[in-house]
Amino acid sequence: MVALQKDYNCIYTVADMHSLTVDCVPADLRKRSYDFMALFLAIGLDPEKSVLFVQSHVPAHAELTWVLNCNTMMGEASRMTQFKDKSKKAGKAGINVGLFDYPVLMASDILLYQADLVPVGKDQVQHLELARTIADRFNNRYSPTFTVPEGYVGNKATSKIYSLTDPTAKMGKTDDNAQGVVFILDEPDVIMRKFARAVTDSECEIKASASKPGITNLLGIYSAMTGVSVKDAEKEFDGKSYADFKKAVGEAVIEHLRPIREEYKRYVSDKAELEKIIRAGAEKASYIARKTLSKVYRKVGFIV
Question: Which of 1, 7, 213, 231 has its CA 20 to 30 A from that of 26?
Answer without folding.
Answer: 1
